Amino acid sequence: MQAEISVVDLIDNYFTAYNSARLREICQLLSRDVLQEGVTVGVSLSGAMTPAGFGVSVLAPLIRNGFIDWMISTGANLYHDMHYGLGFELYSGHPFLDDVKLRQEGTIRIYDIIFGYDVLLETDAFIRKILQAEEFQKRMGTAEFHYLLGKYVREVEKQLGAKHSCLLATAYECGVPIYTSSPGDSSIGMNVAALALEGSKLILDPSLDVNETAAIAYSARESGIPDVEGKSAAVIIGGGSPKNFLLQTQPQLHEVLGLEERGHDYFIQFTDARPDTGGLSGATPSEAVSWGKIDPEELPSTIVCYTDSTIALPLLTAYVLNQCQPRQLKRLYDRRAEMMEKLRTDYINAKAQPTDKIPAAVAENASDHLATYPCGRLIPHSS
Prior knowledge:
The chain is built from 16 helices and eleven strands. By secondary structure, the chain is α/β, with parallel strands linked by helices. The strands form three sheets. A six-stranded parallel beta sheet has the order 7-2-1-9-10-11, sandwiched between helices. The chain has a three-stranded antiparallel beta sheet with strand order 3-5-4. The model has no long low-confidence stretch (mean pLDDT 87).
């Protein structure tokens, strides 16, 4: 190996097999096909990524360069991202510290990241303070909620003279909608709940999120570029609920709303979860085809890399920033009403056209199809 080597040369020429080769394939697929005009890129984010600083160092640059168009994130990632935007300090520690002593000293540990308990208290205080503003006193989806949070965090960053913006603030400035599949499952949701006890009228409506994300996936088929077919890419960091929320957009369209769809065109995932336990985090792209989440014709364009996301993401980001020209921002947040209206209109029109929920050919041959598999009954049936 030569003494000096670029990240592109390293990945292209030395990541030769196993999961290093899968990472190489992902980098090349992204730069060659996915991060092009006409492709709408959705990213799901799980795992403790922002406490490690990846909201600032990885995700924000990808957003600014137009490489992420919309996101699904755990609430915890957005909460810990705010620590950076508010100027609080997190430190590199050790995974084998004495947690009883840390508790006594008022120190929080996320594996080998440590920070003061006051960081949580002050972040909570900031959230409760801004959520009392009039613009929060209504029912809303999590995209609007996070957009408003990002606006306030960005103002703090400006006052502090921050050189680099956090994920929420960057998404606000770039019009990238961020959804949370479980809005009550984080310290942000806990503070929303606390304010409800004081009479706050803020209600986070998950139904709005389900329909808005489906509308984004539905509108992805129209690229807005003459003679260019629109495509949809699902980039999955980790797994969990955000992964499902990103992928369920397709079943929502064809199974529930009755709108014809073919599934996402690209499926890319970094995970350390096994597929054989039946969990969603480890579920493979081919399994997703059976649900209609992935276009079966695009199965060769699906790649899973079994590795730690904290290893893969910095390498991937350096690679695509080197290889790809920035894309024009789609600002999907600003287009939510337009996309929802198209979804609503097409749904109402489709509903007015009576069709079989299950295609006749499938219904007639279902028993024959199942008989070809070596299956037994899972649930005993009494005679």
